[in-house]
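Can you give me the bound-state structure? Components:
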Amino acid sequence: MKKEEDFSEWYNEIVEETGLTDKRYPIKGMNVWPAYGWKTMLLIKTAIRREFDSRGHDEVYFPMLIPEDQFQKEKEHIKGFDAQVFWVTKAGSNDLDVNLLLRPTSETAMYPVFSLWIRSHADLPLRVYQIVNTFRYETKQTRAFIRVREMQFIEGHTCHATFEEAEAQIEEDLDIMRSVAADLCIPYRVIRRIEWDKFPGAYYTIGVDTMLPDGRALQIASIHQYRTNFSVPYEIFFEETDGSRKPVHQTTYGMSERMLGAVVAIHGDDKGLVMPPAIAPIQILVVPIPAKGNAESIYAEARKMAKHINSHGLRAHADERDIRPGNKFYYWERKGVPIRLELGKREIDEGFVTAVRRDSGKKTRISTSELIRELGILLKDMASSMLKRAEEEVKSKEFDVHDPSAIKDGYNRMQWCGAEQCGRKIEELSGASLLGTVSGEKCSGGKCVICGTATDNVVYVAKTM
Amino acid sequence: MKKEEDFSEWYNEIVEETGLTDKRYPIKGMNVWPAYGWKTMLLIKTAIRREFDSRGHDEVYFPMLIPEDQFQKEKEHIKGFDAQVFWVTKAGSNDLDVNLLLRPTSETAMYPVFSLWIRSHADLPLRVYQIVNTFRYETKQTRAFIRVREMQFIEGHTCHATFEEAEAQIEEDLDIMRSVAADLCIPYRVIRRIEWDKFPGAYYTIGVDTMLPDGRALQIASIHQYRTNFSVPYEIFFEETDGSRKPVHQTTYGMSERMLGAVVAIHGDDKGLVMPPAIAPIQILVVPIPAKGNAESIYAEARKMAKHINSHGLRAHADERDIRPGNKFYYWERKGVPIRLELGKREIDEGFVTAVRRDSGKKTRISTSELIRELGILLKDMASSMLKRAEEEVKSKEFDVHDPSAIKDGYNRMQWCGAEQCGRKIEELSGASLLGTVSGEKCSGGKCVICGTATDNVVYVAKTM
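Here's the bound-state model for the whole set.
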């Protein structure tokens, strides 16, 4: 299946064929992670962990089950999740006195404990994150990494003395996003969600959206300013220096396996996956090209070369299987390995190796003595080319649109007065969603596409995954 | 609370006071992992991951929920777990058609998929592992890390063409155990479980037991030979080179957060935890000792020293809090940091630092120019002293016992004919459990302590946690 012809089918095929996921598990929307997919996901988690750790956030772990009564303390929150929750009602042969739910996200698991952890201003800021499995009973069609019922999730939770400090945390979250997206070579937009599309219980929600090849937007992360919406019902109070008792201000930051879905969708091509170097389980493949009689020594050289590369902190693999080199090329191209090194007798004799880039197919001759340095440059160049190409593709999918019934595949920017009824009307006419507004993007002298009221407000509209 | 006086109370206090766990979560046996505990657990997982990866096992991830009908295929297995399972019966407001259970272990999640993955002998051996949360509805008294309802679990699963290859895998598992136990500085015994104490569905079970200070044995890992007990009902067959279809031979290997419980129990003392260097979140604490007027420069030197140590792959932390050095000593001693470095004006002027070992309290003067090398030696020495001390303690708790009603705290070796009724009688008279037999440990010319039949068979008997 070609990506251009049927993106959706292409995606569904490639994620399974390349060993990223196995959808044959007997529960809908709960997929198996085979080794190649799981290694990639672990590398994404490692990249995110590095960003949190280096900024002084602490990794923690809260239980997966939440008692029903804890869950119900914040009213908007439960309304938002009620239909999506899996319930544990029995253990052994006993009916439970209090039903337990599988975390869809961990606010209601953490906040009763935060109220014990935080006593005074000296306990603030509290900045923790966890890397966990979460559960949502999705009733829409499921899709690997993008809409699943058990989701790999990274959630940051912070508590601050003031609203301003919480706002500063959100700025830091956006720094983290910049670094992680650079690793994934993924362009994204920071979009403030419309009031009626906020996270349940949030004061405001920022969506981090990326644009998929079929012109649909995909939220890959979200950042929420809670103000004191949770800290009041969960009684997370602190004593100020002046002795007064105040609720903390909270933020959260969520990222998920959707990031992997975006990587597949944005970078993959008709030959298969294209793995961003930072998260490629194998960055460099070494393929021995034996001729008659010298197979053993060429294989040994290839093995040696992979070992040498690994000792410098890169991830290399020598494919020593007894199949033709062409089959190896095809196999690993499909899995998206960034760089292939071809090593035959002539290369060994003359002290070089032929490097082939997965994204461009471009061949380079690298002197063996410069191998590590040159591989570093190649990987870096490949990452920036991947990001650049993706950015150009997004640019070709941005439109200023005046007629909501004539939207295109991609981001449709429209002027909107901000009234809910006009917003709902845009969604009705376009059959798409209001993603929200982008900070700083205004258009002076325009009029709302629905009611005609003068406004400089610009809203992003797109179909979503 | 002193460890000698009331081990159980001492343990319960210390795990919470030092930030390894927080038991105030509102579900019994499901505890919160605060940063210090979680970092330690992550380091244990990292050590285990390294052992599996270096031997070519692949890390994977299978869904947490298992459909009831899959679970019921192996009859012994379900009998063993039936009373311990948490059941999801509802999602949103719907009753599920097929109830789902929270994995107590993942045989029944994995094996239906293995039957799809394995087609021919070329697909063997299959060797995978996963690092997950598992769930058991424990009805006995819970205890942090030792008996919990949500457990951090590492499970290895392998499939082989023959029984012999599966046996060889079990030998490899024991190699892995040796390396991991060396990191934890924990002595252990490899004990083959009695027939009626096997893992549900296993052909035989090997328990890896350690001895706690109160004389109770704690199983910290287990290895199971399944033969074809699961592969037949789950239809995991492969095509042999001769075209015949055969069930695979399987093994599993389970390790859990009990390893952390054992570390606390075995190494901790009345001052607090003693962290084995390999899994200590902070291996080296740098404490600036300021005098009047020079605080700032001493703090800066301490920070620089910690940074320098970290850049060499060790884990150091400079405590720059504005509290007295003595309070810092106490605080970090309690958390078990292996080495404390004290850095004052005299040390800086003369180019040395004072190192204090957590296990022995021994002070050493280290030249700054030799710092990294000397720290490496100190950490290594400390690890071997910790293991040696623990081994000596275990030796003092080994007894050859002839009267089952007079057992002691520790390992009680008894002669036993092997008959179930005699075994049950030993348990009844001793109020303890038959752990099983140790390969190679025989005692010729003896008699069963119950029936008097001549036997050279030796069984280990102990109270268990």
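A couple of observations. Residues 47 and 287 of chain B are 28 Å apart (CA to CA). Chain B touches chain A through 49 residues (CB under 8 Å).
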